[in-house]
What we know:
This protein is an alpha/beta fold. The protein has helices at 8-13, 16-45, 169-180, 186-197, 203-216, 218-229, 288-291, 301-315, 318-339, 348-365, 376-386, 388-391, 393-396, 405-421, 427-445, 450-457; strands spanning 143-145, 152-154, 233-243, 246-254, 259-264, 281-284, 296-299.
Amino acid sequence: MPPQELDGxxxxxxxxxxxxxxxxxxxxxxxxxxAELQELRDQVxxxxxxxxxxxxxxxxxxxxxSPMSLRKKSGKKPGGQQGRPGKxxxxxxxxxxxxxxxxxxxxSCQRDLAGAPVKATCSRQVHDMPAPKIIVTEHQLVTxxxxxxxxxxxxxxxxxxxxxxxYGPNILGMAAYLHSxxxxxxxxxxxxxxxxxxxxxxxxxxxxxxxxxHNALEPFENAVKAALQKAMIQHADETGARTAGKLHWIxxxxxxxxVFLFRHEKRGGVAVDDLADFAGTLVSxxxxxxxKLVCSHVFCGAHMLRDLKFEFEQHGQVWAGKLIAVLEGxxxxxxxxRSRGExxxxxxxxxxxxxxxxxxxxxxxNPPPEQGKATKASCLAMRLYWEKExxxxxLHDLSMPFTNNEAERDLRMFxxxxxxxxxxxxxxxxxxxxxARSYIMTLRKQxxxxxxxxTNLFRGDLVMPALGAE
Length: 470
């Protein structure tokens, strides 16, 4: 009979062995329920500050400031700092329009000043933009008769002039720019173009524009993928995106100068096959599909700090709190060494010794169980022990980053687009957006004029950014 069906008297009559058996069963149940309760409490306690959850998951009720925030106060006042050079608008030497304001009569005696000599002038400049206006250019093919042979000769339309009536590269480039760079949805983007120019621009026209841009950017995408394979350091990350009614994943491969974004139905596995032959150093979160790759690795230190913060605040793991301080000190030492132009951190060995001691302390406090599931603290300590080289690479090689923020920043706008538009209705639309964002983010990283480059794209001139990955 199960323990819950026995009353105390019946259990007593069955003897000491029966009582002991029931007590052990109850202990096992209590232990399992306590573990489940703790797991649920951990899920509730996690937020963007102490785990890998994105800030968007915090909801409208943001978590209260933690007593141990990873973001430290700089001690500086908001705004421009003392000694910082100011920057303001400057007058141009050759203004486009000059309006002279001359007094018509004397304010004292009322005499006419029409012929009076100019004694001095002072000026102020107003920088403004002209009101947008559609300019219609008509291309006419002229047929003439050759005076020598009598044959009729006719010219050809310029490249890009293909339809009886069509939009030009400036308005198409602007529409693509508003949609892909500033995330305006189809109908709102068409509405902005109509309001600004008076053109009867429709969402269908924007759809054809984006398709044309996608085709024109294919050489760029192929060149960037090839360049990334040769990079010394490459960042990788992924984020979910609702596409065609299902969960798909937007993957990013990036350096400080290049970005390649693509959609895939899988998060790992075949989705990372493009990295199978990568021979450089891959910077990533501790995701199993990346860990299995045979290249050199750097695992994101920001994710590690959040995991340590959670164990310290929620489970009282003192070693985790101390390790956060050690890692922050090591990171500050790296920044100082770079600012002084040094190649290495002089006290790197001391930081590594402290790391080793605290990780061993974490293993001592959280030994792996002989049977059953290990605790999160135990798993974290074991991971920091086995992956020490990949977590501390930034300390011994100042060219290595501490975090994977390079890739995460390139993915951030997909979350913003999700909030604006909700989802991608088609796989094709997601692929178009990924290629456009790859081009835009690469241009921005190289400080190039995005709008001008996108306008040139519709003139048949693909402006290629520098492909040096480093």
